[in-house]
User: Fold this.
Amino acid sequence: MSLSPYVPIVGLFALAALFALFSVAIAPFVGPRRYNRAKLDAYECGIEPTPQPIGGGRFPVKFYLTAMLFIVFDIEIIFLYPWAVSFNQLGVFGFIEMILFIGTVFVAYAYVWRRGGLDWD
Amino acid sequence: MTSALHLVAAAAAAGEVTTGEKAVFFILAPIALIGAIGMVAARNAVHSALWLVLTMLSLGVFYIVQAGPFIGMVQIIVYTGAIMMLFLFVLMLVGRDASDAVIETLRGQQAWAIVLGVGFAGLLGTGLARVVGSLKVVGLEQANADGNVQGIAALLFTKYVWVFEISSALLITAAVGAMILAHVDRSLRDGTAVMSQPERMRARFEPGSYPGPKPGPGVFATSTSIATPAKLPDGTPAQRSISPILPTRELTAAEVANKQTEGR
Amino acid sequence: MKPLAQDPTLNDFGHDPWWIVLIKVVVVFAFLVVMTLFAIWYERRVVARMQVRPGPNRNGPFGLLQSLADGLKLAFKEDIMPKLADKAVFFIAPVISTVCAFTAFSIMPFGPVVSLFGHKTPLQLTDIPVAVLLVLACSGLGIYGVVLGGWASGSTYPLLGGLRSSAQMISYEVAMGLSIVAVFMTSGTMSTSGIVAAQAGSDTHWGPITAPSWYAILLLPSFVIYFVSAIGETNRAPFDLPEAESELVGGFHTEYSSLKFALFFLAEYINMVTVSALCTTLFLGGWRAPWPISLWAGANSGWWPMLWFTIKILLLLFVFVWLRGTLPRLRYDQFMRFGWKVLIPANLIWIVALSGIKTLQKSDWDGTKRTMVVVGVVILLLIVALVWPSKKEPEKLTVADQIAARPDGSFPLPPLDLVVPVNPRAKRITASREEPVTVGAPDDSTGPKEA
Assistant:
């Protein structure tokens, strides 16, 4: 396979990376530097920053569930793409296969829905 | 460069490893290795996850270079998503500032791990080199004849259809497993009832709790004193508008009386 | 209208000499930067018009240079590294955001094959067989910039904002990924130039009006879902929860200042342009001119398509601003419910229905069999609709009944028949204005003749 169509992508990537790194690198030298202890504190609308809990505080396990569901659906989508692209070549058999696949994943989805895994509070 | 690109294309057609492919490999292979080593060596769990992202990205590019653009993109989309999950997992499990313990629980385990790791890599590398070294690569062009994605689809939905359907069972397991492990009934957290967002919103508008800002003292009042309560829309005085630190005092009859200043 | 010979196909890419590649890379880069500067001005002007105020109008003609001035100002601001920040990650997060935003644009088709300095080349940086996936991959990686920026700041608001946006963006990425499936199914390709060419097919004629064969019309549900999830994906109002000012100050970029903040800002607007451009490519016929213009033979050749493409992007950006000016921000639970319980199942059902219809069309069954299948499906749907549990709508109360039903201790309301007395101060002002100001002759009662 010829790699040449990918060269411009790398080119744009490199140009953007150069631009971004350059901007981030010169930022401390272009701007003024006036030290003030309060500036370096965490910003909490003017009040004294809340002390960080030991270990940095933990987060609801809810987010993990969302991420896991995301992975499940992402993989489903990844299977859907080649199927969609060659849909015209696959015929009825491909259609039935995909119905089965979507149906199976939908069972998991319905289960999570019923158990309240998609509810946020 | 045009001629170089054409040369690359020609060489690819012949099934040889092209200069471009070699260049990409020799740039990205060390980066992938550094990512892997960094992932193990990083003290901070989030830094570990980031090093892993670097390795996964390099692998994705390798796939693309080896004429598998679809699988390369999938590698980037799904695996970075997976690392996002890992990232959240770290945050959830150990908090923001978590880092590895520096103390070795097993004496000399690091040294042993390094020796065994290098030994295993050497064994695997030489074995692979002996097997692959004299291998003639064929069939790539035929496999990608109608396009890479179409080729994958043609195999996935005919020859490997059983594997494909089984993978949906795997996905079910993942979703149900995550649900059982991670789902906490929201009505009871730490043994206390937790209000949901809609309930909290409704409570905010319950009688006795006014959603708007408190009326300031003196607003629509008969005097500008801060001790004078504001008036609610129906004319009753709003006691909430007076600061609780003000000393309460009785108003004199003259103060209470309508001053008729507004010409009513 | 048949696909013309000048339509680029996948085989036309990768043959440019290095200097054309360089020119194209720089042009795409400049296009994105200029579009960002323009889009910021455009958004501020449009939203100002919606709120009956002039908007920025000082710097340059119509205030066009306002965003440039703002950008320059940002460069000369102090670069603050918070004490608790994770230095390396804090430094790299805006870079990740920006680079991903730029790279995603590399496969956008601007137009057909043109002649550039005597060299035939497509008006598109490049195209690959998995072009649309590249955009998805870049938007997936762009999430890292947001999450890492929030995490590395070492502060509460950014951390909450980063976490929220990660959950939000992955949720809406699923909906976005699903909405594209129907496009792939209809066009049979993932390359952007191929999708644009596939939409150039036969137009439908309804009397004097010609409807374009765009996927936005053909695959309307996909288009709607794509656009909604694109707004969620770019963190724009009404889905701007990661930067909800009233709750999280600035969200993930609260602690960022100077050029680092400017990069986040740039990335956000480039992402808006990218999703609009992808929307144009996938659903709105790409660079092809719509019907009244396409009557002119030269509309779809040469450099003109670049103009149509840009106009379509700007129209979509207008919708973005319009939504911002119209809709209040959603609550987080409403937002996640919408993404997971509405967009995703609707999308899956639409995909199944579409593939069913297409399979039926392809099949060599005769009319009666087809009718039987269609009737069967309709009956099935009717049964489901009948069995589906329905909620009873509560009876509507009149305003007076509602007031009577309020429990004790409710916020007092003024009586319904309240007549608001005229403010005496206002009365005085009116009176003094009504009085004729006599300056000249005493018989002059109509008003002053000289000021």
